[in-house]
Amino acid sequence: MKKRATPLNYVFTVELAGKIELEKGGRLESHRIDCDTFDLLHATQGSGRITLNGRDHLLRKGDCMFLFPGECFEASVAEGGAARFERTWIHFNAFSLPLMLPKTDRRGLFPFRFFNARNTPAVTTLCLKIVKEFHADLDWSQALCTAYMTELIATILRERPLLKDTGYPAQVLKNISRLAEVRHFIEQNFERKLSQQDLVHASGLSKNYFSSLFKRYTGYTPYHYYCRRKIDRAKELLIEGQLTVSEIGYRLGFEDMHYFSNTFKKWTGVSPTGYLRQIHVEEAL
After folding, report:
1. What are 234-269's pLDDT values in tens digits?
2. pTM of this structure
3. How big is the CA angle at 115 (ends 176 and 6), to the nearest 5 degrees?
4. Is residue 2 part of a domain?
5. Which helix (DSSP H) or strand (DSSP E) does residue 130 occupy?
6. Is 159 domain-assigned?
7. Do residues 146 and 238 both lie within one domain?
8. One domain for residues 47 and 176
9. Is 221 part of a structural domain of the chain?
C-alpha cells in the first residue's frame, strides 16, 4: 500500500530561529527562503504586513504562516495597526524517515499555510522554546530543537479543530491585492477631495465588499483611511516647514481652514499650529 506523506513521517531540524521586532516607519525587511528549507512565522505582538510572492497578507497577534522553499517575502508594520510588529521565526528542514517516503513536493506536509493559534497557547510556547534553545547553543540544543519542532508540528495537527484557518481562495487574494492599488490611488490624489465612491471605483469591487475587505486589512473604513493619510501628509509638510498651515490645507484639498484644523485635531489631539509648537519644543530640548 502506498504510504501517504504526512508530517509525522518526517524529522524536522531547526536551521535558524529568532525573534524580530519591526517599528512603524522603519526599514522594510526582505528575505528569500532557501531552496530546501521552510519558515514558520508567528506574530507575537502588534500586526504586520507580509508581502509574499507579490501579495499582501496581514498577520495579527497569534497568526502563523508557513513559507515554502524558494519563496520571497517582505515584512513591515501594518498600516493602521500598533507601532510595533513582533514575530518569532523558525527556519527549518524536513527529512523523510528511512524506508518510508521519497523526498517529493513537501508543501503538502502542512494542513494549511495560514492559521491563528490564539486559542492554542502550546503553539506560542513551543515557538519560544525553540528560539530560546537554539540561541542557548549547548551540546544538546540541536536535539531539543528537533524534538520541540516535531512536537510543534504534531500540536498543529492535533489542535487543527481549534486553529482558525486564515487562508483565502485565489479570487479573494486577487481582490486583496486591489487594496494596494487603492492605497496608491489615495497617495497620488491628496490634493483632490475624494469621495467614498471614488475609492470604490478605484478598487473595481462592489461597495459593500470593498468596504468590508478594506477595514479588515487596515483597521479603517476606506474614507477614514483616506482622511488619516491626509493628516499624516499634513504632519510631514508641517515638519518640512516650507509651507504655511493654510497652504498645506489647500494643497491637501481642504477649502475651509477651520475644517482642516478640526480634522487635524481629531486625528492628532492638537491643532496644526499646536503640532508645530510641539515640534519646536522637541527641537529645543
Report:
1. 988 888 888 999 999 999 988 889 999 999 998 888
2. 0.53
3. 120
4. no
5. helix 121-136
6. yes
7. no
8. no
9. yes
**Residues 182 and 214: beta-carbon distance below 8 Å:** yes
Domain tally for the chain?
2
Q: Which residue has cell 479570487?
A: 171
**pLDDT tens per residue across span 167-218:** 555 555 566 667 767 877 888 888 888 888 999 998 888 999 888 878 766 6
Domain assignment present for residue 17? The answer is yes
Quote the CA–CA distance of 158 and 154 in Å, as a whole number. Answer: 6
Distance separating alpha carbons of residues 124 and 31, to the nearest angstrom = 23
Question: Within this chain, do residues 12 and 153 fall inside the same structural domain, yes or no?
Answer: yes
Determine the Cα–Cα distance for residues 99 and 112; give it in Å rounded to an integer. 26
List Cα–Cα distances, 193 to 80, 227, 250, 260, 266, in angstroms: 21, 10, 11, 12, 18
Report the distance separating Cα 47 and Cα 59, nearest Å.
5
Distance set, CA 230 to CA 96, 188, 249, 267 (Å): 54, 11, 10, 10
Domain with 209 in it: 170-284
